[in-house]
# Entry
Amino acid sequence: MAEFNRGDKVSWIRPMTCVPHPEGKTDRDGNVLPVFRDKLEKGRVIGTNANGYSIRPDWAEQYKDAICGERYYDKTVGIKDETLKKL
# Structure
């Protein structure tokens, strides 16, 4: 089990996430159909909490000046989660 420090870039797998169809299949209106797949996420460690590491996804950095702020999008990834890896 690796130890992560505040600010470390990490990646993890978010299970069963809604993503666009990998083959680009569409409905009759031309909208790409969603499917559920495991998705590789990237971000940086913000800190630790009782359940694991608090991680801010890379895509959430654009919301730092928004009303809700970027903390709204922080994710908790378990300490013993085997998919959490340092970049």
Summary: The beta strands are 9-20, 34-49, 52-57, 75-78, 85-86. The chain has no helices and five strands.
